[in-house]
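pls design
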């Protein structure tokens, strides 16, 4: 009995809070309905009108809202900083580049493109020139769906066994068929088998502006070790800045992709093209780094998953 008066108070308070919550929820509900219909307006609404574009709010949280990403933005033709990439690209961001070699393939590449599209993932296709000539529509679809298309020679040649003019012919012919078919000029290349001499690396970079893109994760999918093995090798090998090798000419590789990509997404990785990844490269820290204020770092930020 003694507590009755005190129980009534919280009750009143609760009703008032619920009403207030309802009133507050109205505009939020209206706003979230607007997100799916007019995504562009939502972004504008979250930026204070007096902020200049470069001062705009950090919209990272927007990623959780269903906001349509803009369609394919062409990769700007900026010359790479290095003539080759054999190691993980230095970045603090949880990004990886999926690369698919040796296509386009008549059935496997379209199937892969469907899988990527379902997840809104952009990849890089190192295509063989003669396959582009055989399947021009598939090459065009690669580009139309926002992926990067890159040079993997005309005949999948072993470049270290060719003369300079032979190498030049392999690269030029492939660049031409890619450009005439898709309207895009490739800006990176990968030597078949990763075989390239230091001298070749230098002159190809000088003459074509192509950095040689090797890889940091190789699931050896061409040996067809089984779908689950391909998946586990890729997922276990992934780390920020990784360049992952796979082949879209092998059916089991395509079958492994939904699970592989979903596991990487679940680990928090984002997918970028090779050109995007190398443009993100961060400088090596200076020799005398400032002391880290460990006391101010929350424990959970130090035990990140990646
Ligand atoms: Ni290859």
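designed seq:
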């Amino acid at each position: 009995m003694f507590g009755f008066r005190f129980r009534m108070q919280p009750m009143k308070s609760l009703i008032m809070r619920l009403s207030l919550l309802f009133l507050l929820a109205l505009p939020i509900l209206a706003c979230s309905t607007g997100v799916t219909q007019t995504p562009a307006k939502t972004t504008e609404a979250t930026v204070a009108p007096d902020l200049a574009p470069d001062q705009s709010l950090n919209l990272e949280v927007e990623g959780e809202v269903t906001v349509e990403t803009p369609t394919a933005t062409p990769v700007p033709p900026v010359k790479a900083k290095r003539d080759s990439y054999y190691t993980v690209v230095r970045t603090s961001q949880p990004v990886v580049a999926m690369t698919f070699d040796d296509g386009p393939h008549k059935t496997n590449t379209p199937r892969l493109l469907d899988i990527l599209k379902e997840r809104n993932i952009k990849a890089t296709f190192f295509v063989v020139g003669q396959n582009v000539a055989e399947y021009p529509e598939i090459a065009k679809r690669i580009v139309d769906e926002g992926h990067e298309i890159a040079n993997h020679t005309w005949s999948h040649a072993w470049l270290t066994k060719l003369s300079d003019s032979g190498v030049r012919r392999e690269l030029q012919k492939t660049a031409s068929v890619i450009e005439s078919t898709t309207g895009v000029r490739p800006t990176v290349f990968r030597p078949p088998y990763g075989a390239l001499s230091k001298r070749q690396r230098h002159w190809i970079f000088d003459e074509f502006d192509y950095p040689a893109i090797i890889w940091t994760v190789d699931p050896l999918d061409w040996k067809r070790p089984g779908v689950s093995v391909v998946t586990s090798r890729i997922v276990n090998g992934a780390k920020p800045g990784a360049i992952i090798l796979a082949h879209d000419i092998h059916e089991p590789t395509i079958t492994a992709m939904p699970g592989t990509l979903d596991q990487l997404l679940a680990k928090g990785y984002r997918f970028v093209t090779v050109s995007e990844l190398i443009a993100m490269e961060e400088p090596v820290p200076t020799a005398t780094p400032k002391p880290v204020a460990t006391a101010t770092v929350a424990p959970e930020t130090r035990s990140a998953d990646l």
